[in-house]
What does this fold into?
Amino acid sequence: MFQLVELNDVVRVPPNRFGSVLESVALELLKLKYESTINPDYGYLVLVTNVKVDKVGKIIAGDGATYHKVKFEVFAFFPLKQEIIEGEIVEITDFGAFVRIGPTDALLHLSQIMDDYLTSDVKSGVITASQSKRTLKVGSKVRVRITAVSLGHGISMGKIGVTCRQPFLGALEWIDEEVAKAGKQAKAEARAAQ
It folds into this structure.
């Protein structure tokens, strides 16, 4: 789930930046500190925006910089267990596929794709089901449910597990087939009831 989170911090403005616009300096420093990091409380921090800087700073003895309180918003992605999300297959491996969801990749293990024997061709970037002949390949759009979330801290990668072993999950073309099949079945049942 994407969200805007309001945070507070203190920025250190070095003496060589005293002539610059305070908001621009604070934004630059906050981007370096927060963007492309992971916070266990807020998830993947993507973008710093709406910076409000206290014009009056403090000076600490022995340091020529000024310290200013700041309020700002961060655009964040926090994956929630059981959340349904759409993404794109970005890599095929021997053990499954990686799905790009938001700013990160989630693991779709072979055992979580479908009830069929699957073969993974890493060179071609394709996973094929032996009975149904359905395929997943790099670039396939999929709808998945998040089953596991483990967020690190700082710049370490978090771990997210997903599944598509439920009705109306999987490759979008599979879902379209299931919806069409369900529609035909409902019409047939309606005719039979008349």
In short: DSSP finds two helices and 14 strands in the chain.
